[in-house]
Description:
By secondary structure, the protein is of the alpha/beta class. It has helices at 24-32, 49-57, 60-63, 67-70, 82-85, 103-117, 126-130, 133-140, 143-149, 167-178, 189-200, 221-230, 232-248; strands at residues 14-17, 40-41, 75-78, 95-100, 182-185.
Amino acid sequence: xxxxxxxxxxxxxxxxxxxxxxxxxxxxxxxxxxxxxxxxxxxxxxxxxxxxxxxxxxxxxxxxxxxxxxxxxxxxxxxxxxxxxxxxxxxxxxxxxxxxxxxxxxxxxxxxxxxxxxxxxxxxxxxxxxxxxxxxxxxxxxxxxxxxxxxxxxxxxxxxxxxxxxxxxxxxxxxxxxxxxxxxxxxxxxxxxxxxxxxxxxxxxxxxxxxxxxxxxxxxxxxxxxxxxxxxxxxxxxxxxxxxxxxxxx
Length: 250
């Protein structure tokens, strides 16, 4: 990990751990309203959208960047695991925030997005897409647990990297989630935005935050049961997240 710059800015920094298909795109836009665009990572560059998206997903570009480069930004965000936020050059890690979602609903949203945006899946059923190994292992299987369970010495720094999780990883994910400053639930985005205002003093809009939430149309109950069973670790992690959010409200 790069060493801290000799004259690190005293300005507070933030890291939005944007879990795919948790209403995070709209939330991210609300958060970004509190920063100049030049202060936000990934930057928009002349190389265009593709380079932006690569940096949004692959955390090694950020972790391996120089302290001087990291110093440019006050808000970091992306489909990157929690460990990326802890491996930057600053003496004090950025304040963290994230939004989580019921794993079954999130999986259906991922599948619907693939069917809408990838021509090869245009005529596929959601179950057909679910059976695709790359999508299942990288973007569905216990995905939210994985985001918070990747260890600090891991070379896997993309949220889409396959990483098997079990009970040991679940406990690490819970421990790391406890360290997150503001946790939101997709089922109650207004409360998440209100907590951002309370904790950070941001005048965040309370508009409905549902951009890119995907396709959660009714599907066969057997398929829903299969998703829940396959993602039992994520179901346990999400239940823990709900309890944690509720405990912080007391």
